[in-house]
Design brief:
The complex is a heterodimer. Chain A is 27% helix and 34% strand. Chain A is of the alpha+beta class. In chain A, strand 23 and strand 24 form a beta hairpin. The radius of gyration of chain A is 24 Å and the shape is globular. Chain B is built from twelve helices and 27 strands. In chain B, helix 5 crosses helix 11, helix 6 crosses helix 7 and helix 9 packs across helix 10. Chain B is an alpha+beta fold. Classes of the chains: A alpha+beta, B alpha+beta.
Chain lengths: 510, 541
């Protein structure tokens, strides 16, 4: 431990890392300026964050990471791997050139590259502490896998600390001296969902206590959806101009359009479009052409997102009653000016904290927590009481190696916003007889037997003999007391091709 | 109102009013950056041109468009000009910085423009982004960066560009880019007393190598002395783009038989864009495929990093020689690689892998090579920091987070002297030697005037020159100014002694001077004639 910052010279690095499914951010605690600073992997040329993607190019026998991987998509027969944290959750891996790469190893390769790039800033540095800002309450099991991947990347287990996104944000507000007793709303606009949390904050002598009063999320307005809409529009323009049909696009054209969309999407959402139309120059087309995009087009694009966000914020504003909260905006979605303006409008009498580079807030908070843990800066511990998480494992029973096993699809401690988790099972009986899927809950701490919580009749399955019906079973939270079960046909090798059978049903939790 | 008056106002108020902006501008060959001093955060901050999406550097590209039907015209500057180069190839101007200080003009349509006129447009566009940030902004002070190796003419052209952009009153001074980079770096990292640091600033247009010695450091101040400089004005990332472009032309000819001169100007613009993309992509991956879609038949060419390195082998060797040259030609004698404690990579082009490999080869120690965390922004941030220093903002004892105040002992980068007639013919006579600290850069010398006619004794032309490379002959020296000295007293040949004084200003490194009649011993008293050496710009005195 260090008594004060003079003892910590600049060769010791304290890092905060936020690894998202779409992009990742690293912050360093800078002892010279006594604050956390985002490491700008672009060198100042664009987003400080880096795409969470790794890629293998068989032709060059080379791995590429981050933006280098993204820019390379479509150039050859590369294998692109994204959503590394989701892969970790599902326990899936990838086979490349007859070598199986489990999820933790893929993630470790990505993290190792990030650390390498950070160390270029000071090649004599040693990493003293890494704090990972993770999706609120990833389960203990996923946390273990995460730890494993970080250790595989060369970090000692004692160097790693996990903190939830909310803890990191609250730590940041606290450090910047913006935290007071009362209500704090954290709005997190990420790639998968828009999430909001209301905290009741109590600044105590030795810690900050933050109780979650309300939580909600909308996974239909994440920035990935907006990016898909932008891509769709850009592709439509291309088809209109060239006369080509999208279904006939070669892979290279599709990849080129995706790259073009990625590098130009911000033009649709900058404030400048309100006063002057934006020009898209399709230089890669032959012949090249230009398309004008007006503010009307931008408005139409975001219209449904605005409507959904309006009803979301409306619900949220009601949680506060008469108390004026502090509102903190985090996540890359707040780079779009319309999202910032909406929050300002909704919470016009409140203190709104929306920093430059909102996507870096989690990583900065994480680095500050790391510095505090090392005794470099004084920061009270943030203790969060949050009941929006699963209190048990929820899953199915299935036979594996002649033994009935409980397969958790939702893990104890995981947040209700975690998203869908799937497991593929093979039915032992034919589908001509009624098929039931039983959902169980099990406490991992008490080690009791699984308890049946729902008995679901699966209707109208494709007709298959026994042992040939491969079914994907998925579970996700709809809200705190409701789950959605989704089933889909996975086919059975070459004998029974995959159909578009899908069934979903909601079930209540006690 | 001039910046000095704003400085006095700020001192009087004791704070920086919200709408007062102190700026630092990096006017780069490929990209330009504008930063401002954020007094609330007590640090310089680069202005995000994309209003939240983090795109900061603005391509230094200027384009003139004229609608063929309506006759309406407009200037487009920055990102959009770069993206639309293929559509307006004949009226798009890039890398104007390389022409600064030359008499070359840029022809766009029927009109021609001096390089500083084009630069002024870039400055105006950058400043507009400051107004986008805050429509009520008042620009009270500004520092603009120039390469260390910029000659006097190029510096004057930069000043002229500021004048044309209406920024004369706010312009505090020019700052050499390595100085700005060192300032920005010191702001966020600790430099140690006694350290020798090489700043390797590899940008789009230039390579600036400066070696600093941290001569003194305590809690409140740090003093950096420049002990060597090197590099080259036209040696940057753009040169690599050009090499790749030429290779593309060769490939096209080989594969399709089409000659360079037969390729449409739009497609030539396309190749320029593709060449830059190839260079950037090969910094991150080992191979990249260039599509030649406009060729008949169209084809794709595989480009590997090894192939690129082979192509630019001569460029790499020259870069190595320049780095070694900076070590070898240090002002006080050669410096060994072992004596350098830190090599700091700055500039957008410094991220190419071969740069690091070359430097590791020279210094034989990977742990000496430091990358700046924001190599594209440091010069502008450093310029903003320097501007804040000059405006008196950093003497506030409450500003503890930025570290000690920085003092520079900067030196004159090139020999400054006169063209003199000797029995051996025209020679360069050094008055101020390269490596002279600016504080000492005022030298006088007395010459005897001789001539065949009376006119020769009363008027003559004085040429002040700058010798960039120490081995340059007089023909290669750059002309700083040619001055007509008139009205000297009528005296016989050899009976007039003239004291010629030259000085170099610390702020911006501009040359000024005077000629004074000293009479001739007891025979002729000094006439009292003293002329200042003036050229067109008002900044030379």
């Amino acid at each position: 431990m260090y008594d004060n910052d003079r003892d910590l010279n600049s060769s010791r690095l304290i890092l905060g890392i936020d690894i998202g499914d779409n992009s990742s951010c690293v912050a360093v605690y800078n002892t010279a300026v006594k604050n956390a600073e985002i490491v700008d992997f672009s060198g100042g040329y664009g987003h400080a964050a880096v795409s969470t993607m790794i890629q293998f190019n068989p032709g060059a026998d080379e791995w590429a990471f981050g933006e280098n991987a993204v820019m390379n998509i479509g150039d050859s027969d590369e294998i692109n791997i994204s959503g590394l944290v989701s892969l970790l959750r599902c326990g899936e891996g990838v086979k490349i050139k007859d070598v199986y790469y489990p999820a933790y190893k893929l993630l470790s390769m990505f993290v190792k590259k990030l650390l390498e790039m950070v160390c270029y800033i000071n090649p004599n540095s040693e990493i003293s502490k890494v704090v990972i800002s993770c999706d609120d309450y990833i389960s203990k099991n996923v946390q273990l896998k995460f730890s494993e991947s970080l250790e595989y990347a060369g970090l000692g287990s004692g160097d790693i600390l996990f903190k939830s996104d909310s803890e990191c944000i609250l730590a940041k507000i606290l450090y910047d001296e913006g935290l007071t007793n009362g209500k704090v709303i954290i709005l997190d606009y990420g790639s998968r969902a828009f999430r909001g949390k209301v905290f009741d904050v109590d600044l105590r002598y030795d810690c900050v206590s933050a109780k979650v009063d309300a939580f909600d999320f909308d996974d239909e307005i994440g920035t990935s959806s907006i990016e898909n809409d932008v891509l769709s529009l850009i592709t439509t323009y291309y088809c209109e101009e060239t006369g080509l049909r999208e279904e006939n696009f070669p892979y290279e054209t599709r990849a080129r359009l995706e790259q073009f969309s990625r590098s130009h999407k911000d033009l649709f959402f900058q404030k400048g479009i309100l006063t002057k139309p934006v020009q898209l120059y399709y230089n890669f087309a032959y012949p090249p052409f230009r398309k004008t995009v007006t503010s009307e087009v931008s408005k139409q694009l975001i219209d449904r997102y605005r409507r959904r966000l309006t009803s979301f914020l409306d619900k949220f504003a009601k949680h506060n009653g008469d108390v004026l909260p502090i509102v903190f905006c985090a996540g890359s979605g707040f780079e779009m000016f319309w999202a910032r303006e909406m929050v300002k409008e909704f919470f016009k009498d409140c203190t709104i904290l929306c920093q430059k580079g909102p996507s870096g807030a989690h990583a900065e908070g994480a680095a500050l927590i790391g510095a505090s843990a090392m005794g470099i800066c004084k920061l009270k511990n943030v203790e969060i009481n949050d009941f929006y998480k699963s209190i048990t494992d929820i899953g199915i029973l299935a036979k594996s190696n002649n033994e009935m096993k409980f397969l958790p699809l939702i893990e104890e401690g995981s947040h209700i916003s975690t998203g869908i988790n799937r497991q593929v099972v093979i039915l032992t009986e034919g589908t001509e007889t009624p098929v039931y899927i039983d959902i169980y809950s099990k406490s991992s701490s008490t080690k009791s037997d699984p308890k049946l919580i729902e008995h679901i009749l699966v209707p109208e399955l494709p007709v298959r003999p026994k042992g040939t019906m491969k079914l994907s079973v998925g579970l996700k939270f709809v809200n705190q007391s409701e789950l959605e079960v989704t089933l889909s046909d996975e086919g059975f090798g070459g004998i029974f091709p995959k159909t578009d059978y899908a069934y979903s049903v909601k079930m209540c939790l006690e | 109102m001039r910046w000095e008056k704003y400085r006095d106002l700020i001192t009087e108020k004791g704070n920086l009013p919200e709408n007062y902006y102190i700026l630092g501008i990096d006017l780069g060959t490929t990209n330009s950056v504008i930063s401002y001093w954020d007094n609330a955060a007590k640090k310089p901050e680069a202005i995000d041109l994309s209003n939240g999406f983090g795109k900061i550097p603005m391509p230094s590209v200027v384009q003139f468009r004229k609608d063929a039907y309506t006759g309406e015209s407009e200037w487009v500057i920055g990102e959009e000009a770069y993206r639309s180069m293929k559509i307006y190839p004949g009226t798009t101007v890039r890398s104007i910085k390389r022409l600064m200080g030359t008499s070359e003009k840029v022809v766009l349509g029927k009109d021609s423009y001096k390089p500083e006129e084009i630069s002024a447009k870039i400055l105006l566009e950058l400043v507009q982004h400051c107004y986008n940030l805050n429509p009520k902004a008042e620009i009270v002070g500004l520092v603009v960066s120039v390469p260390y190796d910029f000659d006097d003419a190029a510096k004057k052209a930069t000043l002229h560009a500021c004048e044309l952009a209406g920024l004369s009153d706010s312009l505090i001074c020019l700052i050499e880019e390595p100085k700005a980079a060192a300032l920005a770096y010191n702001f966020r990292h600790s430099l140690n007393k006694g350290e020798k640091i090489m700043v390797f600033d590899f940008g789009g247009g230039t390579l600036d190598i400066t070696i600093f010695h941290v001569v003194d450091k305590d809690e409140s101040r740090i003093k950096l002395q420049v002990i060597s400089e090197g590099g080259e004005a036209a040696h940057g990332g753009d040169n690599i783009d050009d090499i790749i472009t030429e290779e593309c032309y060769r490939i096209i000819q080989e594969k399709t038989g089409q000659l360079k001169e037969n390729i449409d100007i739009e497609n030539q613009a396309d190749l320029i864009i593709k060449s830059r993309e190839t260079k950037e992509r090969l910094s991150g991956v080992k191979s990249f495929r260039i599509p030649f879609t406009f060729c008949v038949p169209p084809f794709v060419e595989q480009f590997t990093r090894d192939r690129l390195n082979e192509l630019i082998q001569g460029f790499i060797s020259k870069t190595k020689d320049l780095a070694l040259g900076a070590l070898h030609d240090a002002y006080a004698g050669a410096i060994l690689p072992d004596e350098i404690d830190r090599v700091l990579l700055e500039g957008g082009s410094s991220q190419m892998p071969w740069i690091r490999d070359t430097l590791v080869e020279i210094f034989n120690d990977e742990s000496k090579i430091y990358s700046s965390d924001r190599p594209a922004l440091d010069i502008s941030l450093g310029a903003a920091y320097y501007a804040a220093m000059k405006m008196g903002l950093l003497s506030d004892p409450d500003i503890v987070s930025e570290g000690p105040m920085v003092e520079f002992e900067v030196v004159v980068p090139h020999d400054i002297g006169l063209e003199v007639v000797t029995p051996l013919g025209l020679q360069f006579f050094t008055l101020i030697k390269r490596g002279t600290p600016y504080v000492l850069a005022k030298k006088s010398r007395t010459f005897t005037l001789s001539g065949d006619t009376l006119e020769d004794m009363t008027t003559f032309k004085l040429k002040v020159l700058e010798r960039i490379d120490k081995d340059d002959t007089i023909e290669k020296c750059k002309l700083i100014g040619e001055f007509d000295v008139k009205g000297l007293p009528e005296r016989p040949s050899g009976k007039t002694k003239l004291k010629i004084t030259l000085s170099v200003t610390e702020e911006g490194g501009l040359v000024a001077g005077s000629v004074e009649d000293m009479g001739f011993g007891e025979e002729f008293e000094p006439s009292g004639i003293k002329d200042l050496l003036r050229s067109e710009s008002k900044w030379d005195t």
